[in-house]
Write a structure and sequence with these properties.
The chain is an alpha/beta fold. It has helices spanning 2-21, 38-56, 58-66, 68-74, 85-88, 90-101, 111-132, 139-156, 158-162, 199-216, 237-248, 263-274, 288-297, 386-398, 443-452, 457-468, 472-484, 498-510; strands at 167-172, 174-175, 193-194, 255-256, 281-285, 306-310, 347-353, 358-364, 375-382, 418-421, 426-429, 434-437. It has 3 domains: 2-125, no CATH class; 165-257 and 311-398, no CATH class; 418-484, no CATH class. Strand 11 and strand 12 (434-437) form a beta hairpin. 40% of the residues are buried. The structure holds iron/sulfur cluster (SF4). Residues 325-334 have a biased composition (Basic residues).
């Protein structure tokens, strides 16, 4: 945990730098909450509230443009909207951006705007820190995860990819979800069972966390306790996250669509995390009425570190065409187009279901007929105790293909729309990004053989050596660089479905 402590200290330093870049009167409220007085906190919290209403309520949006102060007063938002106008007046914001790009003088942002922007910048830095955290994401698993991060940038685009934390673990404490959202991007089934915090289950849970930390590393602290499930469906959720904190050093992020079903419990969770610097919780807002209710039950200050996710129809935010959304389309709801990323999955690691004691090794991808829920399942298995889990995780990592071996069939990632051999090197491009590889004398031959898509790495290396005299080791190095960049096709072959791998893992378990 010493490395983690060091990384946390670095995070604080970085937060101060961010705050100072917005002005001497700005402090890192998110990362070091104690450094801001109550007036500071309140101003940021009320700006946040205005923007929540603005992003989810089209009637409010229209009123705000016409009569800003009246609109805020009518919705009980205690703020001078003109003071933060640049945050909600899209046309003016666009114009200012344009003026800046053209080198024209622009007015300085108000103190409230600078403080709010700094708060957001800190949260983005936190997200990046969660994704890039080094401690414990090393070795073979770290290599594999890094490949998935690069692959996602090629396949889903840099904007979407930057938002994925690639959590290393997620734990479902239920089977299914009681909420039943039509758009559920991970295809949650109906709630059928939960993992109760009995003495036997509590022991298995604590063992599971310990094994994850031992095998994967401290990075498992970026995990959470939901997936195709709502954490608050589990009556014992608080016990589980208390253990999580004890074992891994922080409370897992809670994202719930039912924060008001048991308000006392939600408040208890918010109280528990309040003293933990720089933590985000999230409420999914499914309807305008739910926004009204959340805003009336919780003050802006109570929700300063709770993000409200705009999932209601009036927000106009399109739903990812993944999971249930692939087969349902209620009138008036927007969905992402085919050109946009079709996934809400955000982990590259181990997805547990504690009810059936299963583990799946998963990573994001576009939703498709084969992967309708927007993530690939590379392999899976079951466990009944810590020892079985330890062996299972190690075997899943070993089988994940973190390097190109002699018998790896090497082919280009189908997301690549162009590959070009130039005088300088080898350009590969998806619709989103281009990468250039250099320092290899036989890119033309390599490109041709990769396009065939049927040769093993040993075959490719041998042919290139025969044709050009390039040493085998150089070809393996460049193939591994392509793998690292996510440029090789690593999707499990249809002919070798996950089910077979399951059998293999199970067989190994019982060995
Ligand atoms: S989106 Fe979340 S809350 Fe809604 S059904 Fe899926 S898992 Fe449940």
């Amino acid at each position: 945990m010493a490395d983690m402590r060091k990384e946390r200290e670095e995070r604080e330093e970085r937060a101060w730098e961010i705050a100072r870049s917005f002005g001497e009167d700005v402090v890192p409220l998110f990362t070091v909450p104690g450094c801001a007085d109550s007036e500071y906190v309140s101003a940021v919290a009320r700006t946040k509230r205005l923007l929540e209403r603005w992003s989810m309520d089209n009637v409010f949006r229209a009123r705000l443009y016409e009569h800003p102060q009246e609109a805020c007063d009518a919705y009980g938002i205690d703020i001078d909207p003109q003071n933060v106008r640049i945050l909600w007046h899209e046309q003016e914001a666009r114009q200012r951006k344009q003026d800046r790009a053209n080198g024209l003088p622009t007015p300085q942002d108000s103190r409230s705007v600078r403080r709010y922007r700094s708060f957001i910048a800190e949260k983005l830095a936190f997200r990046d820190w969660m994704r890039d955290v080094k401690a414990g994401v090393s070795g073979r698993f770290g290599l594999w995860r890094l490949q998935q991060m690069h692959r996602c940038t090629l396949e889903l685009g840099p904007a979407k990819s930057a938002g994925l934390v690639h959590a290393t673990v997620a734990f479902e404490l239920q089977k299914g979800c009681s909420v039943g959202c039509w758009f559920c991007g991970v295809g949650a089934e109906k709630l059928s069972a939960h993992f109760a915090y009995s003495p036997e289950h509590a022991a298995l849970w604590r063992d599971t966390l310990d094994v994850c930390r031992d095998v994967i590393g401290d990075s498992v602290f970026n995990g959470f306790c939901y997936w195709a499930s709502d954490p608050l469906d589990n009556p014992d959720y608080i016990h589980f996250i208390t253990d999580f904190r004890r074992a891994l050093g922080r409370y897992p992020q809670t994202t719930t669509a039912i924060p008001l079903r048991n308000e006392a419990k939600t408040r208890e969770i918010l109280d528990m995390v309040r003293d933990c610097a720089g933590e985000i919780q999230r409420f999914s807002i499914l309807t305008l009425k739910m926004l009204d209710d959340v805003h009336s039950r919780f003050t802006p200050e109570e929700l300063i570190n709770v993000e409200l996710l705009p999932l209601n129809r009036e927000s106009g935010v399109p739903k990812a065409n993944a999971g249930h959304a692939r087969v349902k389309s209620p009138r008036g709801h927007a969905k992402t187009s085919d050109e946009q990323p079709q996934t809400i999955a955000c982990m590259s690691g181990f997805l547990f279901n504690m009810v059936d004691r299963s583990v799946r090794m998963v990573t994001p991808c576009h939703a498709s007929d084969r992967w309708p829920n927007g993530y690939r399942v590379l392999a899976q298995g079951h466990f009944d105790n810590a020892e079985q889990l330890r062996k299972l995780l190690i075997r899943l990592i070993d089988g994940a293909g973190h390097v190109v071996t002699h018998d790896t069939t090497v082919a280009l990632n189908p997301c690549l729309v162009a590959t070009t051999v130039t005088r300088e090197g080898y350009d590969i491009a998806s619709i989103w990004v281009k990468r250039t590889l250099v320092n290899f004398p036989a890119f033309a031959a390599l490109d041709r053989l990769l396009r065939d898509g049927v040769h093993t790495a040993a075959d490719v290396a041998t042919r290139i050596e025969d044709e050009t005299g390039t040493p085998l080791v150089d070809t393996f190095n460049i193939l591994n660089e392509l793998l690292r960049l996510g440029a090789l096709d690593t999707e499990p072959a249809e002919a070798e479905p996950v089910v077979q791998r399951v059998g293999a893992v199970k067989a190994m378990d019982s060995a």
